[in-house]
From TrEMBL:
GO CC, alphabetical: nucleus
Top-level division of the source organism's lineage: Eukaryota
GO terms of biological process kind: methylation
Origin species: Erpornis zantholeuca
Entry protein name: SMYD3 methyltransferase
Iron-sulfur in keyword set: no
Lineage per the UniProt record: Eukaryota, Metazoa, Chordata, Craniata, Vertebrata
Keywords from the named record: Methyltransferase, Transferase
Length: 158
């Protein structure tokens, strides 16, 4: 997996690595907007140079997703979240709590966009991992089960 982690053009991932290290935890909407703009600029200037499996590109995708969530840009957050799923599957195989949480986040975004069948599938994947990693009594698990049930209810209404 080491080759995958640093796949792509050296100059591109080094630039992204520096950017990832620059980003601290934004506290205001303005700071989140700045973070998102920085991510978007890097994505466009490095288009075709870095695969999403590059570890720094993946961190930048996570950062862009977080920025979009904080700015309530749900559709864009989902776009970035979807791009993280395959690299997460690669780097966190099997029953890994980080992968479960990422699947849950993407599933909730799909649900918010009315993509109920996709959301249900993603939430089920999260559930199957989380019941092992977190246990059925964990607070995250309760939120996940509620979202899954709401999704199933919405599908019955359609």
């Amino acid at each position: 997996q080491d080759a995958e982690k640093l796949a792509g053009e050296d100059h591109a991932w080094k630039e992204v690595k520096d950017a990832v290290n620059e980003v601290r935890y934004p506290k205001s909407k303005e700071e989140w907007k700045h973070v998102l703009a920085r991510c978007q600029n890097l994505f466009s200037s490095n288009k075709g140079l870095l695969p999403d499996t590059n570890i720094y590109q993946l961190k930048m995708l996570d950062c862009a997703m977080d920025a979009c969530i904080n700015l309530e840009f749900w559709e864009e957050a989902l776009y970035y979240g979807n791009r993280t799923l395959e690299p997460y599957r690669l780097y966190y195989p099997g029953f890994h709590p980080l992968r479960a949480v990422q699947l849950m986040r993407v599933g909730k975004l799909q649900y918010s966009q009315g993509m109920y069948p996709q959301a249900l599938e993603t939430l089920k994947q999260a559930y199957n991992i989380m019941k092992v990693t977190h246990g059925t009594d964990h607070s995250l698990m309760k939120v996940l089960m509620e979202t899954k049930e709401e999704c199933e209810a919405m599908m019955r209404l359609q």
